[in-house]
Fold these 2 entries.
Entry 1:
Amino acid sequence: MIRLTDIWRTYDVGGRPLHALREVTEEVGDGEHVAIMGPSGSGKSTLLNLIGCLDRPSRGTYELAGRNVGELSEAELAEVRRHQIGFVFQSFHLVQRLDARANVELPMAFAGVERRERRRRADAALAAVDMADRAEHRPDMLSGGERQRVAIARAVVMEPRVLLADEPTGNLDSRSGGQVLARLDELNRGGITLVVVTHDPAVAGRADRVITLVDGRIVNRMRGEELGAANPWIDAAESAAEGEAEDAAAERPVSGGTEAAP
Amino acid sequence: MSFADLLAYAGGALTGHRLRTALSMLGVAIGVASVVLLTALGVGARNYVTDQFASLGTDLLIVAPGHTETTGGVPGLGGTPRDLTLDDGRAVLRSVRGVLQASPVVMGSEAVSFGDRSRDVAVVGTSSEYAEIRDLHVAAGQFLPPGDWDRGAPVAVLGHDLAQALFVARDPVGQVIRIGEFRMKVIGVLAKLGVNLGVNFDEVVMVPAATNMRMFDRTSLFRLLLKTTPGADLDAVQRDVKAVLVERHAGEQDFTLITQDALASSFSAIFNALTAAIAGIAAISLSVAGIGIMNVMLVSVSERTSEIGLLKAVGAESRQILAAFLLEAVLLSLAGGLVGLAVGWAGLEAVSALYPEFPVRPPGWAVAAALGVSLVVGALFGVLPARRATRLDPVAALHG
């Protein structure tokens, strides 16, 4: 489904190159559930944005469902995002002036789906996240967990092949977070490819595979069930640090949690 | 994305910020309202004046003493214009074919009194032909008696309002009034006429030309009005009148011939220029309003950065985002334009209620232009903010 080959993402910061991702090579199979972990500024959000076609690699090739994304035009990228990819964000990104249903309808409106069909699909998507009775509520009348469930409904309403979640439970209490994760698991079991960025081992542990990034480099790959309660990147970082100490000191990305991209 | 969806999206963004939307609409509304109002007043003023000239009739030729194009020459020679006299008038009437009637006009200003009531009014000295040439009617009695212009009979015809002011409820005809130190017998009262070419005919007293000249010690006429025979060649008549008068004035053209056509068209040109200038000034306020819209839209774009990022994430194309923001700006200015049109219209209704005789109709081109310009303003000043929206980096927009 997703094939990354020797991906570099380099930003120019004050005339100096800053490598957010370095020689990332990875493959995610169709229907797989993969978690990306790593400390703040490790490049995990950059990687997710790249997979989501919001960003392009500086070097390397990215194939999504067999198409080389690097060769697509701006409009074609938009089309890929519209039909193949769903996004779930830590801060939900619901449009405040629109009610839950209108938020879910938004991607369909831009895709040109006819009004009645749009409404039907939005209601179905809301029902699937137990939000049918909240369809007419605006985001400010919803709890965090409810907002994230609306956001999930919006992310999957176009029936994408890939669902990308950036710290989906980051702003939620454990109970709401649990509901959100349960829904994501359910979607994954239904066949959607799920990539989750998180720093929470409990979230990452649900994945089939866990990839750990440190300083833009994949330093560790393991199976989800292998992940204990320990922070995997601490060991990994220590083992990686030996070879790259000078590199990392000079080019450590600006810290900023998941907002690593400048 | 269908246009209806785009419209709903852009409209929703505007109604989400009611105060801001209303304020920036106000700017456009004021601009459009002032274009409509000011051009309507300008065009109304022009129509009013040209109507007044039209009421003179196209068969009228006016001779005025003095020549506007008189140039230097030898000082002391031919510098002073000769008087335009009653004899000149008679000569023109006698010898120019195509002149049907002539009427001298002499003007003065004097206190008119009856008993203890007195009023300062314009004293118009003229002849019986004046009533026909200017289409005046009497409400009571008769107009000035026909006959020899030199016979300065001590008779007067009063304007409608003047008669009322002096005599209140009594019948003025047959009474004797004083004009300055002269005693005059009132022989008639004019029907109500109103203001025409700056002269309020309801507030004048009319006397025979010779009487007026004697009262004010004048030797020259103020004007000589000539009415041409129907179907006469006006240019030929003008040429002949000029020839007769030049000969009588020792070969010098020390008078001016005016046709109402020439007067009307020169006034019309002045008012057109005035209207255009006014409209230009109003248009400036429209472009100021446009900058207001641009400002609001720029704020809107920067406020909705994360929304734009989201739109990109859910696969909205750049041209859709551009269209949405452009439409928002156009809706804003168009709504302002419509409000302005309504305000302008209401203002015109108020003006025409206050001054019913003043014709205020906004010219169609001004209404169309005001709306068109407000549309263009929205589109033009909306482009920059909309382009800025589409150029946002989605990653930065989502996380910023």
Entry 2:
Amino acid sequence: MTTIPDAANPADAEPRFESVQQVRDSLRDAQYLSDDGIAGIVYLADRLQKPILVEGPAGTGKTQLAKSVADITGAKLIRLQCYEGLDESKALYEWNYKKQLLRIQTEKGADGVEQGEDWTDVRDDIFSDEFLLTRPLLEAITSDEPVVLLIDEVDRVEVETEALLLEILSDYQVSIPELGTIVAKQIPLVFLTSNNTRELSEALKRRCLYLHVDYPQLEREKAIVLAKTPGITDNLADQIARVVRSIRQLDLKKSPSVSETLDWARTLMLLNIETIDEQIAKDTLNILLKYQTDIAKATKELSIDE
Amino acid sequence: MTDLVGSHTKQPGGMLDLLNGFVVELRNAGLPVSLTENLDAMQAVQHIPIEDRDAFKYALGATLIKNHSHWRSFETVFEVYFSLRGPEYKIGDGDGDSAIDDLWREMQEQQQGEGQGQGGMDGMTPEEIAKMLMQALMNGDQGMMRAMAKQAVQRFAGMEPGRPVGGTYYLYRTLRNLDLDNMLDKMMQASKEETGGELTSLEERLEKEEFNDRIEKFKGEIEAEIRRRLVADRGAEAMAKTLRKPLPEDVEFMHASRDEMQALKKSLGPLTRKLAARLARKRKHKRKGPLDFRSTVRHSLSYGGVPAEPKFKAPRVAKPELIVIADISGSVAAFARFTLMLVYAIQNQFSKVRSFVFIDGIDEVTDYFKATEDIQEAIHRVNTEADVVWVDGHSDYGHAFEAWWNEHGKDVGPKSTVLFLGDARNNYHASQAWVVKEIQKKARHVYWLNPEPKSYWNTGDSIVGEYGTFTDGVFECRNLRQLESFVDLLA
């Protein structure tokens, strides 16, 4: 790791994608069915070298998007899971103080007497790369290979902690007081996901491209079911997508997510069901919905209570 | 109608000018677009060709809009400013050579076989048009629907350049001629015949939803087509101005249309979640409680008996008890509903919530919210079952307050916060403001929320000032933004 990279300016790096269409196609090959918005913004993020802030209801494939992009670009995925109380030493870097202590002690122990003139050496030495523990954010920019950085559920950290991210998101660098500024060797593709449990700060939003991933349209959901559930018939996938759309239109506590749709599709496959009738829908509704009140409501609404 | 495509952009720099106007309009519509975001957008358009319209729209959206509830407003402005881009969006008489017009001719030939009807819809009878439309809708083909929409507007809307009428007028004229209301039944009928048997109720429901969805899409196409033509006629700026609508959080409760109400309801969910999270966090991170002597001594053992690390007790949470008294008559009903929904959505922030509603009589509705987890249902019961009419069903604050005081006045204690919701338009009845005064003496706080703009207070039969003197504050609460900031203060 060098403090000031003498390598070529990473900003001149080759773009990862040729066109929006290419992003869409390769994502599809990786079994992630994107729409115009998703593919376009991933392409743009690569060109503008900006992070993407992905927001949307739970279970719509926000995290999966980052994984799939890492997959198709052959990049390493580095993931930072956010939680309340996340701090610098877990997100950016930490000094390995046990090792530092050891280093100081071996110096002393070598000939039993303390050598005063050594202190400057020791001090410089213990604040060098060897004693630095890299955490996900620092790791992402110091890596030699291409990286996709996923900062998951960024809305869980406090507003103050968000500030930690700002430097790396806008300039792709990390400042360490003892070492200086570490600049990225390559520009990672950064995804931040948020479940929107609180308003993120303006400063963070301004630095990102904003992508809202919603529940998919009927055709896309059907395609997802077809792609992710091997052996399913076209007819059944169509029915599943339609029933789910119908349920999502109800006023529920928690609408079924894409992952729950897939769970349902797999269940129906295991039960060897060819077409959904009302009895089957009623019996398996608890896979789609997780609240008793929601189940009761959906049962009533779909008029399958007889 | 003349062809105005490209009249203001083909020259170099036109794109930047257009984008500038676009951003100015976004700001006028109340969307917060910062300078850096503007620059990002300018960079973005260099990478995404305008011909790929959807990708172009999303690229602009991603750089300029950072809040999903603003997307609708963004889309409207986008449609206005960029609706004349791209060949297939050309305004013409239907005989152009774009893909859409080709498709149209193809459809016509299929329809008639003998090829007599070239040109627009003008030569066709209403029955032929209806048949063709139904076919397009049954197939669910986007392109065909778009072609149909274009022709329908051409024939039915009767648009004249320079005529000062809004888009809704043309929309109404077009839709009236197409008779979309009966289309759904006809489609259901046709679909039944096609499958050749009875549909189960589940199948029928799904089928209906699908058709409804398509009809809505078709209506959207017609609207877009009308808008395109209006923009060509009047220019983007003027058009954007007439279409400007308040953001969901700025929509006034008292004047919200049905669509806006729906949008409000939708944005209330995420808002309450955010509010609850914020309040819980605020509580958790507040100052520590008193010194925990036992724990401090216990921990001092590891420092050789020196109490180096003082320990504190967890803070005692002072949760207020909330009493909501809401006017649910006429125009303020919507406001009361929203406030009740919000209050109950964050009710774990209070030790107890009791709610009363009145018009000229008063009734307690706390149990409705207790009985069910579903706030919507509780609100529905409040509207249908609560006994709030005493004489004539016109607001009488004085009588309602007096009745409330006689029955529940003793329940107000030093932990209670009392919240009045209403416009205090008392129909010139006696105010009985002494009730509020008595409540203020006993309660911790008394607040009044008024959904009317401040300039209307104390005009006509509004006596909010008279009640207000006995409260800790009267707050103007016209939209979600104001309501949110008040609840933040409350908990």
